[in-house]
Amino acid sequence: MIYKVCILLAISSTVFCDEIKNDEGVLVFTKDNFRTGVKDNEFVLVEFYAPWCGHCKSLAPEYIKAAKKLADQESAIKLAKVDATEETELAEEHGVKGYPTLKFFRNGSPIDYSGGRTADEIVSWLLKKTGPVAAVLASVDDAKGFIDASTVAVVGFFKDNSSTAAKNFLAVANAVDDYPFGITSTDDVFSEYSVDGETVVLFKKFDEGRADLEGEITEKNIKKFVTSQSLPLVVDFNHETAQKIFGGEIKSHLLMFLSQQDGHIDKYLEGAREIAKEFREQVLFVSINSDEEDHQRIIEFFGMKKDEIPAMRLIRLEEDMAKYKPQKPELTKDNIKSFVQDFIDGKLKQHLLSQDLPQDWDSSPVKVLVSSNFDEIAFNKDKDVLVEFYAPWCGHCKQLAPIYDQLGEKFRDSDTVVIAKMDATANELEHTKITSFPTLTLYTKGENKVIQYNGERTLEGLSKFLESGGEDGQAAPDEAEEEDEDDDLPRKDEL
């Protein structure tokens, strides 16, 4: 179907028409029809995309499904898309800096989209923004239709919708956009779903099919209940689930690295689901398909090799990510359970990556450091020690390498200066966390002051830094972590 956008030019009394194409239910906007398209439709969600973008390709089928669901509901909400690589002016006008970027227009006024990337999540978010936060379920048919329409649906059962518990429920419904919320006070609906008294029930088309809230009906309890029960017992890590995994209430995760090609999914997943039930609101179980090219950096981040898979690790997300490795690598139910229980009981020690110390680590002008010899060399009170924390895949590190080698050669015969480097992707330190590459840090003689370099990455700049005892070229306290041109570690949503 093609929508005609007609612009009447009063001066010439001539009508010009531009066609808005419809691609499988999604309107195609260009610079010529964009303004009229968003103004002629009260509600429009617009995706700014790039044809080559992997995240955009993953979103595309879900976006089309969402458009169809809205059309089937005879909703006034429209979905549209803009090829931002073609319509660069439009993208710049709307502050598009990454792909996909989604903007929701209400009567022509935009707000940022903050919902999920599945069809259900997109529709739920849009309905929340254009209607009541919770649908009123006045009959059994209303309730069945509401529950059947989504993979996850949350229903509040309250005889009095003005009660404190009901108000807490509606507050959470207003705050959580990813899932549809319904509310009922009808006796027949209570009876149909065997509910006695006030409660919240989450209906889902996976795992147990239903979960009932236990404990007090407070905002905190409802939100934690919804975020934990709305995810599968074992969540498959991908572009769509990353936001929920890392943005959820549960900050401790068991990561299972499995190869689908080698049959690990069928062999281990069911047993893991059984264990996951016991730790549901304490530890989130996540499966990562090691066959996916996008997941190779994650495997490297945990210092694993392909031949170690199947494998598991535990992580705790706080200000710094803490990682834990099991003593026994097998993914048996007993081993998974004991590993998670020991973690909860505080019996596990953090796992820090470390390489073996090369025999020739000090044979070159630039000394090679690993976790085991770092403190001995870097904190030598008789010497100024400059350390480059690098990553083998980092482009900026590769550019710096010949300059750093020259620096090592310049100070080769010095009795008071050491030039060193450490692969920070394969070696970790309890006292130092590296967030971007390359990071250049001077450990001074005497007091062992730690000074980060923030000057030009030239032989002259680095030499002055060393010769001035770290005064010339050091980073100001608020600049030490602002070097936006460096290569960062994988973000939490990439892990």
Key features?
495 residues, alpha/beta, Glutaredoxin, 7-stranded mixed β-sheet, 5-stranded mixed β-sheet, 15 helices, 24 strands, disordered N terminus
Please characterize this protein's 3D structure.
It is a single chain. With 495 residues, this protein is α/β, with parallel strands linked by helices. The chain has four domains: 21-130, Glutaredoxin, CATH 3.40.30; 135-230, 3-Layer(aba) Sandwich (Glutaredoxin), CATH 3.40.30; 234-345, Glutaredoxin; 367-468, Glutaredoxin. Helix content is 31%, strand content 25%. It contains 15 helices and 24 strands. It has helices at 34-40, 54-72, 88-93, 119-130, 140-148, 164-175, 187-192, 219-229, 242-247, 264-278, 296-301, 333-344, 371-378, 395-410, 459-467, and strands spanning 3-9, 14-23, 26-28, 43-49, 77-83, 101-106, 109-112, 135-136, 152-157, 181-184, 199-204, 210-212, 234-236, 252-258, 284-289, 311-317, 321-324, 366-369, 384-390, 417-423, 436-437, 439-443, 450-452, 487-488. Strands 1-2-3-5-4-6-7 form a seven-stranded mixed β-sheet, sandwiched between helices. A five-stranded mixed β-sheet has the order 8-10-9-11-12, with helices on both faces. Strands 13-15-14-16-17 form a five-stranded mixed β-sheet, covered by helices on one side. The two termini are 42 Å apart. Residues 478-488 have a biased composition (Acidic residues). It is an enzyme of class 5 (isomerase).
